[in-house]
């Protein structure tokens, strides 16, 4: 009985407040308006609405790696950087999405949060973190304040890690053939970083990091394929040492069939679209990947350094370059 009386009293009070609201005066709670800056509007129109992607660039230290000294991104770099991501990374996937007859839905698969950091994540050992992916839901991209839209080596640093992490999302959604893991069974090692890329290729791995375990092997094959044109990829495969070439060709074949059979995507078509888009983005139709001023040093971007955590966090690093 007391409970009913209490409920009735609350209802009467709420009705009184609703009817006599003008006598309560202005609220003391400051409710900010939704931001409508050019940067926020660009993010909303070009990433949030079409892909449900949230981009965080305003500084929130609690969302970053608290063990590192980091700085926020300069806002003038945010739109140019995201424009490159849309043109060179998102748009090619959307082209093959439309051709997949519903088998490949990029909007559902893409990570839903990008966190932008102005500086690199500098480690005590001299390595620099350039990208982190957390469980397929969030990608953290560093060194935004060093973004240069005219240098392919800078762009490839970002796209290598983004293709790599997206490959993880794909196989976590639909696993690739178990035949893949049997190709290099017994050769995977937790001390992959003690080996060079040359040694890795002699043993059938595209990079030394691919030697960690078969899922990383698969993701490295995908990302290495997608940051090259088909002719460059073919040339790279032709240059592989005889001792590891057959294993790499088998892995290549399984990557091709996985994309085709599972997602109805021709990976070489996707590769060609990416190459075309990055070429157009950089040089307005000229061959950016062959430009002497924008040429990539293989030793720079063929030897990434990753770390992989038990919480499905994958970090992409670069070693200091001594030239």
Please describe what this structure looks like.
This protein is an alpha/beta fold and 323 residues long. It has a single domain, classed as Collagenase (Catalytic Domain) (3-Layer(aba) Sandwich), CATH 3.40.390. 49% of the residues lie in helices and 9% in strands. Strands 1, 2, 3, 4, 5, 6 and 7 form a seven-stranded mixed sheet that branches. Strand 6 (305-308) and strand 7 (313-318) form a beta hairpin. Helix 3 (75-99) packs across helix 5. The model is unreliable at 1-10, 12-32 and 285-323 (pLDDT under 50).
Features:
49% helix, 323 residues, Collagenase (Catalytic Domain), 12 helices, 7 strands, globular, 7-stranded mixed sheet, alpha/beta
Parts with pLDDT < 50 across at least 5 consecutive residues: 1-10, 12-32, 285-323
User: What is the annotated CATH architecture?
Assistant: 3-Layer(aba) Sandwich
CATH topology: Collagenase (Catalytic Domain)
Percent helix range: 40-55%
Order of helices and strands: HHEHHEEEEHHHHHHHHEE
Can you tell me the CATH class? Alpha Beta
How many structural domains are formed by the residues? 1
Most strands sheet? 7 strands, mixed
Choose one word for the global shape.
Answer: globular
Beta-strand percentage? 5-15%
Which secondary-structure class do the elements indicate? alpha/beta
Beginning-to-end CA distance, first to last residue: 84 Å
